[in-house]
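Continuing the series of single-chain predictions for the mutant panel. This is the parent chain; the variants come on the following pages.
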Amino acid sequence: METRINPMLNEVGSKWARHIIASNKAITDSALPKAVQELVKIRASQINGCGGCLDMHTKDAAAAGESAVRINLVGAWRETTVYTEAERAALELTEQGTRLADSSGVTDETWANAAKHFDEDQLMALVALICVINAFNRLNVITRTPGGAYQPGQLG
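Parent structure:
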């Protein structure tokens, strides 16, 4: 697989990426649990087929102490016992928020379930995270940014 264009070597691409990365600070500084953040990034990236983001976020999750079992089972979270009810609610919201064209969007039931587990600030961080990871997934898929070479923590 050959990259079509390297966004980080392009003036517009690198400027755009810096803004999106800067906006991510509000999420990482929030009270949304770090494990939930990584699980959400992995699940959205699986749905979108983004090898670059999957490479990064699975490796970062492992480096942060997440178990191989939980990382490997994200795609089948409904059929497992390794995630908390809050994590399951976040994963359901991630799936519906990522697959907007495949359904009528996020259901009231899914939203209410997430709201049972996360306060308003955490919910907003979760929504923002779903938006950010989907933006990066789309950037990497469109430009054909491959996965495989990422080293944990290399981007900060």
